[in-house]
Amino acid sequence: MVKFDRxxxxxxxxxxxxxxxxxxxxxxxxxxxxxxxxxxxxxxxxAHLFEHLMFGGSVNIPSYDEPLQRVGGExxxxxxxxxxNYYVTLPAVNLETAFWLESxxxxxxxxxxxxxxxxxxxxxxxxxxxxLNQPYGDVMLMLRPLxxxxxxxxxxxxxxELSHIENANIDDVKAFFKKHYNPxxxxxxxxxxxxxEEVKRLAEKWFSDIPSGDKYHRDLPxxxxxxxxxxxxxxxxxxxxxxxIAFHVPSKNDQGYYEADLxxxxxxxxxxxxxxxxxxxxxxxxxxxxxxxxxxxxxxLLIIDGKPSDGVSMEDAEAAIWDVLxxxxxxxxxxxxxxxxxxxxxxxxxxxxxxxxxxxMNLAYFEVLGDADALNKxxxxxxxxxxxxxxxxxxxxxxxxNSSTLLYLSNS
Amino acid sequence: xINRTIAPEFRSIEEISLLQPTHRLLDNGIKLYVxxxxxxxxxxxxxxxxxxxxxxxxxLQAYATNALIIDGTSTxxxxxxxxxxxxxxxxxxxxxxxxxxxxxxxxxSKHLDNVLxxxxxxxxxxxxxxxxxxxxxxxxxxxxxxxxxxxxxxTRRVFNHSLFGDSIYGYxxxxxxxxxxxxDQLLDYYKKAYQPENCVIIASGKVDExxxxxxxxxxxxxxxxxxxxxxxxxxxxxxxxGVFFTEKPDSLQSAIRIGQISVVRSHPDFPALQFLNxxxxxxxxxxxxxxxxxxKGYTYGIGSxxxxxxxxxxxxxxxxxxxxxxxxxxxEIEKEISLLKTTLIPQEExxxxxxxxxxxxxxxxxxxxxxxxxxKSIFLSNxxxxxxxxxxxxxxxxxxxxxxxxxxxxxxxxGFNKVIxxxx
Lengths: 412, 424
Hints:
heterodimer; A: alpha+beta; 19% strand; B: Cytochrome Bc1 Complex, Chain A, domain 1; Cytochrome Bc1 Complex, Chain A, domain 1; 2 domains; 15 helices; 11 strands
């Protein structure tokens, strides 16, 4: 149970406070309700590039990092397809420094040309390091546009291609800030050795004079229901061939998401999971196989990825995966197996409460989805799933016409 | 109106309190260290075994024994072990590192009675089924071929070998090494390494007397030391200043790793070297990051580290940079090293790093598990809590003069090994 208080400033900034007296530290987590899905299709990767620019100095403070490090603080940020999240941890006695820094960059950035030029390079190197110069690094660059034909989830947060980042200019940066970086588009969570009254005072002092901008209304193209199986084959200089199958699943706000997540666990969490024990251990057809969910705010994907053993044909490998999936559609998962994955979820939730930063991030994310208290109800949403729910959900997910398959074949 | 150009007042960190574990002996002599803290009803139990009897002709012996320890006992199959741990929402993780092999259990306290007997079986009665070994060989050989496509992996292997030769710290595993593992080697190693005399247990979380008695019942009785084992011995080739280049003509980026053998944690200079390392490349605002990422945009990240293993320490700088700027990056790294040897660190930067390191240390003491980690790192270096007092004292008091001397004493760019994979 993660307790919190909530208040909203007149400019629309939502503030949550989680008092945790067991630590001498404080966390300030600010989530901006903007992600790669909000980008213009011809300027992808922009939300993430922008995240880098948030560290390039703000209107009254030339450097963000230095003053924070000077008071013993650390920070970082990440961008997803849905959100951009910034976080600071620092000794709680120096909490005000985080308010000073975060409020100034919400007020306005320095918009330095030099910073833009450097960060364009840095992000291009990040693009190369994580996507282009790695074996299988470009998989999501191919799988996303196969699975999504309309919805902006068709590109990854890094962007579709290097040129989109290379072409970003300072006017685009200013416009993006104006559109998305407003107090009424942000959620701030303050946690740790803090008191709600003190957080209120500091929030009023530092954030209340930031004007609320025009509220951004998200109106994204919805992904039409997929009606036929899709597939592409890609050849590459990797040592081992691989197969990826993506299926559409419900969004995080839907109970169906929790069913899909448990299905993912039944398939690939731990050595007693189905894909692992069946295809790696028993049939020895794969050397590596996983199922994972993108876990996104709009309807996301369940992705199976596997590398067949030497000498196993791709055709046989693919058929073997479908056998495991079809079994979930035709037979009820035994009660023991279902309670196994539920217990694992339950204990993971308890372990997650040991980390202050995780708690703060989760509160912010559930708040942007609608209500931070949903974090505390998440375990129940998993526990109430029945074997029949799993079977019905599996039937709706594991259909050929709901699948996008990428065969990533080795040239060797 | 508030004046936003003025930073709020701040305080330096005065008090840092570390939670020291209590120490017990189980009935069979196993050392048990207990960090009892936290509100959540959960426990982490880590069983640590020193790596022993290193034999370069069977370099995967210790690794494979550790990896397969949870894959079968005389009464439980691999699947049953995994299922019985999973059904209680618990986690069991074998982990292999240069100095030791471990098995860690995470569980809610209420399930201890159900999961501890399984862990006991794993630690005292593993049988290493041939079939499981075959699976390990098949999957790991394929993973190795994939990771050898990664420039940073190749660079790390070449670097470690250049410093540590064919010792356990430096040996580069090849696919054929997997074919040389057999079941008898694993059984033999298991008998030698996984014995009470070679075992330490660190328990953290909510660990009350009842839990301790449960631990003693499972691991303190009916498990004894019966076979001799040898500590690993080390001798290193001491290559100095070698350049090791692996060409990958199609690479978009080159991976770089530069460094040399250095002192271990117990050396009096170690805390000060950590300070110096932080200035150079140990945090986001470091000189290497400021110059090579934030000014030049050559890389997504660059860092340096002062690492301490049980039998050697080493210093390294690592990055992946655009292939076209690889040699410029090397020039800049050399410049930054030389600057720290010739010019005093300005007072303002010195104070910043001081505060940053203290804040970061305080922040690393989040919960019972992190206090257990802090204990583990001194315990494995044969140090006690005086080390942390001294560390904090050094961070609070070190001067720019001392850091300059230290840079001159320890850093010699020409003597560093330089490993590059990609394009020069």
